[in-house]
């Protein structure tokens, strides 16, 4: 079993990738991980425009070459014509994890009625979990504060590292093993 968690962070934004504005959402993911994780981790970041091929290439590189057990994307999940992050994610995935999309929209509905506009998905590529977060910077902590409860166990089930969290931020849920 590996000791260190490698996390890929992919910001999908036409304007941030052009330099029209600074990427806030990618750094917000990194800041959240720094706050929440007490076990060792490293982050590799990528910034790509809302383009199907570029998104897929970034995810594949992070999973297959960098060995990221977790890839978090931000942006491009809505109904705008150029929003293709969920399609690009599923195109490079082996299996969808429908519970992730369901859970994220459930969480986000507590904050904004437009939560239903995000088509965000969770999916697996090999032993990597890929999760789409919305582009809005504040959505990052809104979602991860609750969603992350289920992520350490998912990574463990794929023979990844044991991920420990600060319970002040989020408690990692692990089903109790039966005795004997
Ligand atoms: N990476 C980011 N950093 C900072 N703010 C962002 C980022 N992504 C999105 N936002 C903000 O959230 C809003 C909604 O995000 P959305 O992903 O719909 O952007 P968009 O309108 O498709 O534009 P773009 O793809 O050029 O970021 C944006 O208008 C922007 O204000
Ligand atoms: N938690 C949370 N979820 C959210 C939002 C938000 O502000 N907070 N914004 C919503 C809005 S307004 C949109 S359009 C969709 C898609 O956003 P994206 O295209 O930036 O990925 O995410 C939704 N989900």
UniProtKB/TrEMBL annotation:
InterPro entries with a match to the protein in the record: MoaB/Mog-like_dom_sf (IPR036425), MoaB/Mog_dom (IPR001453), MoCF_biosynth_CS (IPR008284), MPT_Adenylyltrnsfr/MoaC-Rel (IPR051920)
Recorded coiled-coil stretches: none
Pfam families on file: MoCF_biosynth (PF00994)
Reaction equations catalysed: molybdopterin + ATP + H(+) = adenylyl-molybdopterin + diphosphate
Domain MoaB/Mog: residue ranges: 8-154
Keyword Nucleotide-binding: yes
SMART domains documented for this protein: MoCF_biosynth
EC number, UniProt record: 2.7.7.75
GO biological process entries: Mo-molybdopterin cofactor biosynthetic process
Enzyme class, broadest EC rank: transferase
Pathway: Cofactor biosynthesis; molybdopterin biosynthesis
Gene Ontology molecular function, alphabetical: ATP binding; molybdopterin adenylyltransferase activity
Entry keyword set: ATP-binding, Molybdenum cofactor biosynthesis, Nucleotide-binding, Nucleotidyltransferase, Transferase
Taxonomy, superkingdom: Bacteria
PANTHER family, alphabetized: MOLYBDENUM COFACTOR BIOSYNTHESIS (PTHR43764), MOLYBDOPTERIN MOLYBDOTRANSFERASE (PTHR43764:SF1)
Function, as annotated: Catalyzes the adenylation of molybdopterin as part of the biosynthesis of the molybdenum-cofactor.
Protein name: Molybdopterin adenylyltransferase
């Amino acid at each position: 079993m590996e000791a260190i968690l490698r996390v890929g962070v992919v910001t999908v934004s036409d304007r941030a990738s052009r330099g029209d504005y600074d990427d806030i959402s990618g750094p917000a993911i990194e800041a959240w991980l720094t706050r929440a994780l007490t076990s060792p981790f490293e982050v590799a970041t990528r910034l790509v425009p809302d383009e199907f091929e570029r998104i897929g290439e970034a995810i594949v590189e992070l999973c297959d070459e960098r060995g990221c057990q977790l890839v978090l994307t931000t942006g491009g999940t809505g109904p705008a014509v150029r929003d293709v992050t969920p399609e690009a994610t599923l195109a490079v995935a082996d299996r969808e994890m429908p519970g992730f999309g369901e859970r994220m929209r459930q969480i986000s509905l507590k904050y904004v009625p437009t939560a239903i506009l995000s088509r965000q998905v969770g999916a697996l590529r090999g032993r990597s979990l890929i999760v789409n977060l919305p582009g809005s910077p504040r959505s990052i902590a809104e979602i991860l504060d609750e969603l992350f409860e289920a992520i350490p166990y998912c990574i463990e089930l794929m023979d990844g590292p044991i991920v420990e969290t600060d319970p002040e931020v989020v408690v990692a849920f692990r089903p109790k093993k039966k005795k004997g």
